[in-house]
Amino acid sequence: MTGLSIEIAEKTFPADGDGPPRRLYRDFRLDVADGGFVALLGPSGLGKTTLLNMIAGVDRDFAGRVAFSRGPDPRIGYVFQSPRLLPWRTVLQNVVLPLPKSRDSERRAKVVLEEMGLGDAEDVYPERLSLGMQRRVALARAFALEPDLLLMDEPFVSLDEANADRLRDLLAELIAARPTTVLFVTHDSREAVRLADRVVVLAGPPAVVARDVSVDLTLESRRIPGEIERVRAVVLKSGPTVVPLNL
Amino acid sequence: MRVAERLGWSAISLGGFVAVWWAAAVVHGDFRLLPTPPQVLQALVVAAKSGALFSNLAITLARVAASFLVAMTLGSALGVLLGMSKTAERLIGPWVVLFLNLPALVIIILCYVWFGLIESAAVAAVAINKIPNVAVTLREGAASLSRDLAEMAAVYRFGRWKTLRHVVLPQLAPYFAAAARSGLALVWKIVLVVELLGRPNGVGFELQTAFQLFDVATILAYALAFGVIVQAIELGIVQPWEHAANRWRR
């Protein structure tokens, strides 16, 4: 596990075609506690994915810094918006490949796949699976790594609600079993409240933190729609009080 | 279609071809200009008995293999470079177009004139003819490499070797296959010309000798033998490999 703090002095996307350059971030700051589950909520096009990419180190074209509380080089699991599996490798190979080479890694991958109900699909090529199953494999890949930090970019979009709900339950179980710091990007406020212990609402551009709400719900109360709606009203600011979170 | 059925149709088609050929030879009547299938078969047996057939086929195949390997290696490297680097594409791209349109004969003659009638000049001439084709094909492949998967490999720290083996090469495989297939067809045709112009052995040389003697039966015999071998390579090596590489597709 690792906490992190992000400071972005400036992040601009260069002009593409005739459009002007887009400034996504300016003097942006966000701290995530070690072991926290933070949902980043905001409309699409704000640069939430870009933020994850900057944290993951695949986008280095910005002024600012990302610091991790426990060492500079944490293990990062990233569940992308599309599953991004290697179609020419089997499910098992897809989960094993990111793991450090050791005799143990295949067994570890098998255990995680088994836990996620993918035991029968080990030797299948990803494109033969449904999208829901593919997303499950992407989750397994991230969890098998036992990451210090888990980045998730709308991992349940374009699934039907029942399927997405099952995967949300699965995610909650996995995190309970293997605690880790999570940064979860979504535009679905219900999903954010249901999973996270802190919801950061972004507005902009350039992106600013509009609201910062802590979600004090137990695992059981998260299954009660009324409870979710109560906190959601706060998050969406239609409720009576705003609960600021001091870090 | 079932395998047996497909083979049956192929047999009927080829049988029809032989029948038309035979009939044409009989109607024409001059067997020196157009020999019948049995006469060609006999020429084949004669060439095989003297050992000339096999040694010439082996020599030619070795040249095909050498120039094919050189062309695939250099052409792939060049193509990937062109696909990945805009600067390289701007600087060297026009050269590729130039060489693509240079007649094979010009390259062969220049190689022989500049480097002499030697083996390496022959192989180089064939390879230079093929390199631009390979480069153009692989350029397409390299330009269409998935950025999503590259990012995934970076986040999950695949490293150089793992990324190459599991992420990049599988994406290039269909382009390799396309280049290899069209490459084989082109290379073995050009090798014969190279042998005809400047080598003392090989199928191309034998064809020239037969041409000077007006020995059409031998010409057809060599063409037949070589065609069968190239077809065998296609069916026995290229297609199974392609099939294995495409196993994951739905």
UniProtKB/TrEMBL annotation, chain A:
Domain (ABC transporter) ranges: 6-229
Highest taxon of the lineage: Bacteria
Keyword set, alphabetical order: ATP-binding, Nucleotide-binding, Transport
Keyword Transmembrane helix: no
PROSITE patterns recorded: ABC_TRANSPORTER_1, ABC_TRANSPORTER_2
GO molecular function: ATP binding; ATP hydrolysis activity
Pfam family, one: ABC_tran
Family matches, as SUPFAM superfamilies: P-loop containing nucleoside triphosphate hydrolases
KW Transport (keyword) present: yes
Family: Belongs to the ABC transporter superfamily.
Matching PANTHER family: ALIPHATIC SULFONATES IMPORT ATP-BINDING PROTEIN SSUB 2, TAURINE IMPORT ATP-BINDING PROTEIN-RELATED
Protein name: ABC transporter ATP-binding protein
Organism encoding this protein: Hansschlegelia plantiphila
TrEMBL record, chain B:
Record-annotated ABC transmembrane type-1 domain positions: 57-237
CDD domains: TM_PBP2
Positions in coiled-coil regions: none
Keywords associated with the record: Cell membrane, Membrane, Transmembrane, Transmembrane helix, Transport
Subcellular locations according to the entry: Cell membrane
GO biological process, one term: transmembrane transport
Superkingdom: Bacteria
Lipid bilayer topology: Multi-pass membrane protein
InterPro entries the record matches: MetI-like (IPR000515), MetI-like_sf (IPR035906)
Transmembrane segments: 7-27, 64-83, 95-115, 210-233
Family matches, as Gene3D superfamilies: MetI-like
Entry similarity comment: Belongs to the binding-protein-dependent transport system permease family.
Name of this protein: ABC transporter permease
